[in-house]
Each structure stands twice: as structure tokens, then as C-alpha cells.
Predict the structure.
Amino acid sequence: MKKHNFNAGPSILPREVIEDTAKAILDFNGSGLSLMEISHRAKDFQPVVDEAVALFKELLNIPEGYSVLFLGGGASLEFCMVPFNFLEKKAAYLNTGVWAKKAMKEAKAFGEVVEVASSAESTYTYIPKDYTVPADADYFHITTNNTIYGTELKEDLNVNVPMIADMSSDIFSRPIDVSKYICIYGGAQKNLAPSGVTFVIVKNDALGKVSRYIPTMLNYQTHIDNGSMFNTPPVVPIYAALQTLRWIKAQGGVKEMERRATEKADMLYAEIDRNKMFVGTAAKEDRSRMNICFVMAPEYKDLEADFMKFATERGMVGIKGHRSVGGFRASCYNAMPKESVQALIDCMQEFEALHA
Ligand SMILES: Cc1ncc(COP(=O)(O)O)c(C=O)c1O
């Protein structure tokens, strides 16, 4: 049976990316060696990193003066590296979910942290809008897509201080104005690669402004100076990331990714709003195109486990909502075909015909 992979992360990747990476794992560039057994300093691997960096810059239209890094540690390590490198006195954070809160917690060890607004009181079902960012903050930190709650900032904000963004779950799903940010980071395991690599886009001249000692491995400058090769980088995930970047370019770039994401999300939200058995959980204006969250309508609440079983039997994978929210979450990252979204919609309609 065909599987429709709605996992939140690690998650669906383009089939070509998996096949090309599998081939390289068996034989890298005809070398007779596996991608898993070559040195990261091998002559053939440097071009992989160079092309991945170049494609990052091209696809996201990154201005001069920024570096692209591939590191270990996940987005979770960035929660601490960001304040280590950028927080001298005060930082502002927008609290839009568990990940934003975790980022904020780390920052508190380095200086004053202002939570400019929070939607915690409504289990993060919306993104706060009316708030003031202190003009003397070193940066304003946002989480552009809240993977657990299905809310998304679909446009770059206009604020009076440089922004830093966790874009783990929406990178490459829309064009971004990188010049508004001094740092953009994320775990790659949603829209880019298998888990194991973290991407960081950093504005070079925003570094070197804090007075503390930064441990070598946690200092972005170390990784800029060494082209992400200060220590052994995650070779296989970087190779897969390159294949994804080539795929995005061949499909028409981030504008095309945005068009597809909007089309898929519109289809599924239209069904959630139409079908009397289901209710969307995120505020309409903040609905994520990447993670689409919904629950059973109150009168059908007892049928939640039945729908899960029904959908699973029809090939749906990974639609269980995050344990802190419940219900369902259909993650529709870049590689998710429209046909899979349609298959989920068909399931919802068949279930409605049986029960409602
Ligand atoms: C928005 C966001 N930030 C951070 C993380 C944590 O990423 P990692 O597991 O790479 O540390 C996740 C993981 O799902 C996420 O969705």
C-alpha cells in the first residue's frame, strides 16, 4: 500500500534525494568508497559543501556579508549558541510555543531577556501581534513556524532591531528577506535533509560584539573561519541537503515551493472547515502551511482513535498530533505531493460519510 508520510520531522524528503543519497552511500562519485567511509577532507567532498553553500545563497537570495554553516547539535544547541554569540545586555523574544520558550530559557543565562508577548494562555493557538520590541535589544528572536501548534509567520516582520529566527520547520517554503536577520537557523530534518545537520545563516559583521569568552565550538566565527570543517561535519546529511537544494532549484525555487505549500494547505484547511467532524486548532490568520493541526469536533470526540485507525489503514503515516496538543497534525513539507494531501482529504470525507 502507498504510504503518505505526514511525519513532523524527521519527515518526507523528495524521492530523488533519497535515491541519489542511497547511491552515494554505496559508491560515492565512482570512487569505490561509500559516502559513509570517506574523509570530510577528501577532495571530492569539499565541492559538496561549496555547492550546498552556494545554493543556499542563491535560493534564499542571501546578500553579501553572510555565511552559511552546517553544524551539529540541532536547533536546540542554537538556542544557546545564539545568546552566547549575540546577547551582550538585552534580548527580546516572542513566545509562540515550546521551541520559542526553550530558546528563551537558554538566553536568560546570558543577559536580560524580555518576553515581548506570549500566546501561552491559549496553548499557542495564535501568534501575538500587538507588542513593542525594546529599541535597545541586541536582537529580537522569533520562531517563524511553530511545528507543534501549526501557526506560522508567513511574512518577515518589520521591527526596529535585527531579528534572529528559528526556521527549522519552514525554511525554503517561502522567499525571505535575509537582510532583516542577523542569524537564521534550524534543524535540517524537515524541509532539507535527514536529521544530523543544523543550518545557520549568520551576518558576519554582527559577530564579535559580545565581551564574554565563547568556547571554541560554540563560536560561530570558528565555523566561519573553517568553512564548517573545524571538526568532522555530518557528511551524509550534508550530501542529502545538497540533493534537496538541487531539487528545490529544479522545481522552480522557493517561490514555487510557496505556491505549492499554499495550494496544499488551502486544500486541507478547506476540508477541515467543511467537514463537520473536524475542527482546526490554529487561529485562521496564523494557520501554518507546513503543519496543519486539527481535532475531532466536540460531538465526535469519542471517534478520535477510530479515525486514526481508519486513516492508518489507508496509508496515512504520522498524523497523530503532538503529545502536548492531541488530535491530528498533518505536516505538509515541500516534498509532500498534492496527491497525498488529497488522499488524506478522501479519508476524512469517507469517514464523515460513515459516521456523520
Ligand atoms: C521550530 C523548531 N525548533 C527547534 C526544534 C528542535 O530541533 P532539534 O531537534 O534539531 O534540536 C524543532 C524540532 O522539531 C522545531 O520544530
